[in-house]
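thought: fold this chain, then report.
action: predict
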Amino acid sequence: MKKLFRLLLVSVLFGTSLTVSAATFPGGLNTALVPAAGQSTAGLHNAFVSGFLQVLIKITGNSQIGALPDIQQQLPQVERYVQKYRYLGNNIQVAFDEHALLTLLAQLQQPLWLSARPPTLIWLSVANSPPVNAGQTTDSNLITLQNAANVRAIPVTFPQMDADDQAVWQEKNQGGTFNQETLQKIADRYHVPAILYGEMTQQPDQTWNANWFLSWGGQTWQWQNNSAQPETILSGAVTKVADVMGQALAVNFDQQNAGHFWLVVMGVDNLSDYKAVVNELKRSESVLGVSVSEVGSHGLLLQLTTMSGDQEALKKMLDANAHFTAIQLNDGSDVLHYQWAVVRTGA
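observation:
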């Protein structure tokens, strides 16, 4: 049975590319939901382009990445990056190939923002009214902010406007100020690392103006924006937050300093085990690529591409995973050996 499995697996692997996939993006960063412009070839292509650019912005944290000439060159053949898609009402949900995206961004030396996004509390007052609260799920401003946050994969929440929040708001109306200390107290109550405070008012010429104050990581950012459309102002504020966080948290991937390690995994007896091993390795943000080199009686031989060349960091990652148990051979080789274990339930 094991021999048959190895023969089947080898025939599958060597019939296609050996590179299985790159690190799985958290929170579906490789997917986008974009408007469907019909089901024509041209309409579908345009939707893929919109989704492709949206995903690149999420992965890099750079809202201007679509303007790069090297990215523009990819757009005519964007279909080669599409993994799957489906229609959802008037929209199309597109998933793009993770490995192809990471390979492209690595070649272009673009930063990668694969870490978790800090949750942000949005405290927004419109025309001096009480802040938009979490219970106002049909409020157009809340919906705009939430949709913009979804596009950038930024988790956001809104105040409950309970007694404590009401007290803060009343103090503000009586001449108080929302300085960093006040905002930090609010953020601490909601257990979020970041808070975005905004005041949006309509001007005599019917345009809208907003003042924003972002507090995160002990730093503050202040800015203004204005537009005839409040949706533009709100989306722009979320974009600003995502750009600030992306610039701070995105990691520059240096191909010259990347790590390439050989890993032998024993105990891979069937296709289910093989898939599970690859998926576990893909879960790690530090693992950028998983390539299968050989399948044989000695085990599954893989080459891992990691963000850094630190083998000890890779070993710590594997040791922390209950599915992998280190095998000590003491043969002086740099090849890592691990035993695969599956937790089976039921009879």
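thought: worth noting. The two ends are 21 Å apart (CA to CA).
final: tokens above.
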